């Protein structure tokens, strides 16, 4: 209630808290009836005289009344700290005192609670009773407990500085905060406290205990409130106190305390929880505050309290983490408190402090771990693992947000799940084979593991049991063995295992597979699985999915006393019934009985039981087709365009790569000499994934998947970037690898989970930004979006992502839309200036029919391309199929651009002093386009339009031999080589002397691989007996790119 001001004296008039006085009579200790507790009124009378004569105080001034009240508060406070004093007796005396000392406020708005706290602070500061900072004296504890029980509204009363008692206690006398919160019952206690729940009803002993202050004030009428503890031994609590009144009071106290713990409107003030964590007083060996008291207090804090920030931007979890840097504290207690904070509000682990580095509790803990800790290092590691597990296992954040929080960015992120859907049998040997192609780097904890055959079209009824080979019948056991042994996985939060097959896994195999991983979400899809199998394999299960054939015996076993109800942590249950043995009507009757039994035995679990029939639980998803690739008849002829490059590709990929490996082995101080540790080219393929089981897909795939992002209910099964079906993306990868087998491919799988919509714009935007974060050199985009189908925000975000990629120096390649009547400006990304438009050409170099009306920058082969088909639901794969479309042309363009970039980096790596001038330009768009123009026969073209990038004689048939034959020379510094080379080329033009030929004529003149370096005029001055680096000679002799780039 607001304070009233005296207009004459300008002083605050002493007033009463609004609900306190009506809580009890001034002459009786007995509590009011429950219905009267909330029906309170403001008592207008100020402090009465001690002799009880009403009205005498009216002759006293307000200042005199205030002085007497403060004196009474002071005397009471001193009394509580006299040795041998009884706090309950002190409370009884002052409760019966008609001066209302316990409920009156002085002119500063301070109550007796404030007065006690001020006195304790004075005792601490004077060193008279310094131990009070760690623990409250017994008398003061008993008194304050009674004061809070009878007058809980004093907790909300603020003084002239807007300071409430617990605000003051949080700063100065922290144990008193816990004294108050320890009075509040836990949820489990509230469920067990009612009379009907008393164990004595079943002839058992009632073991409930309550603080003696509560027993003292809530004693039943006629009972001796001052009975000794010994006299109450063996007595039932429900016979001693009025339980109904206790429960009502406790609910009111709980709501009051929760409101006090909330953040105030003043942003400059911290919460009480911040203050409790502000120093080490609650974590020393002398402190009476234990981890359990802290846990109960934290449970009273709402989410906005746990996420609130102090003036420095720190939330309570920040403050707790910083205490790890202190010395001489109980680190076990601190870890328990941090654990309580995280479990109560998982969002707090993502809370940044808003500073320059926006530190989160996790990043602060990582910094502390890296520091020179002398104590608590092991517990810091445990807290880090806790944060990581909560992050990985939580449901409130997207996968991108989790990875960025844990690892800083997506580039350095580890795998936090394993999701496999293949037509093949997934076992230990299969996953080992996949791991040779896909780069797995698992964290020690996984969000989930999903293993399923694709498509799951096997019959669901189990035939007669056969004594089959356990390894053949239990293939998934080997996968989990591999995760533990090779992947280093220790914790798996959820499993989704499709096992509704003729020969499902044995119970023994399931237990052996899952027992090491502490699974919390159970979704092993085996019909009528035994309860004990789940209990033994995953005793920590919280979310339970069961699959029933409608067999009533199984349903009864699940719901019996020692069935699934023994899963103490389980909080939700979903039952999927496949109508196989009974009619739907009978299944429904059996299910209703099952639910009734569960709810009777586990009321907490019974609230979250869901029944789903087969149509709801087995949602199938078909592969999305791609419009701009078409399969034709089976042919085995390789594309002539690719065959032209094969000798050079082999030379680069094998002979030169061996030299690079040797050079790296010999060079011990590569970084100091400016030499990269690895020659590489990174290409991002944004598509519908790549099937890692397909042929012509080499090892070390990296990637990310946004499959199913559009599904708000998340019922669609997830598909990772390396799983099928992904025919289109696999074809693109095969084309890239044909031209540049040394490429590091980053596969970004867009959301292709809809049968009607090929990809989503939102997932494309995410994929482009992910590719930027991976530091790729090239992005290949063999798809288009109709601008008319995009909203304004999507248009803006898409253009921004493309612009950011271009500014990052990434070469962007996009395919034309293969629709005959399409208009370029109607489609993204090809209508954007930052993107190089690629169209499809026939094997004769003409525009393919679908691209007749398109306006490509460059044309690449895209018609009748033979590609090896990946395994599918109805085929083992391995056969050549013919495909066509500008998508393939774009992939070939990405492969050629990758080959050029790799060659440029390799030359600089092998011999940085003599690498051709301008070669570094070739890793950017201008250099790539210049190379494309040169290879297309139009090196001086300003803007290329429908230019077919034919290779002609620009690639030698035997580059190694040419390098050996023409390698007998000693190269001088780079500038001499380039100038001599140009002079030599000028001499070839029309037989004229080098001086009479201009540089422009040289640029227009194609460089012929038929002319050797020795026969070229102008090179005589630099010939010598020592062999040149074969790679540089091969590049020069091949005449691929350098002349156009100089």
Task: Tell me how many strands there are.
Answer: 20
* Overall geometric form: elongated
Radius of gyration: 39 Å
If helices are DSSP runs of H or I spanning 4 or more residues, what is the number of helices?
Answer: 40
Ends distance: 83 Å
> Structural class, from helix and strand content?
alpha/beta
Strand order of the largest sheet: 10-11-9-12-14-16-17-20
**Into which percentage range does the β-strand content fall?**
5-15%
Sequence stretches where pLDDT stays below 50 over 5 or more residues: 1-46, 49-57, 228-233, 456-468, 615-637, 671-676, 965-1046
Descriptive notes:
This protein is α/β, with parallel strands linked by helices. It has 40 helices and 20 strands. The protein has an eight-stranded parallel beta sheet with strand order 10-11-9-12-14-16-17-20, with helices on both faces. A seven-stranded parallel beta sheet has the order 1-2-3-4-5-6-7, sandwiched between helices. The protein has a three-stranded antiparallel beta sheet with strand order 8-19-18. Helix 4 packs parallel to helix 6, helix 17 (331-344) runs parallel beside helix 19 and helix 31 (727-739) runs parallel beside helix 34 (886-910). The longest helix has 27 residues, at 640-666. The radius of gyration is 39 Å and the shape is elongated.
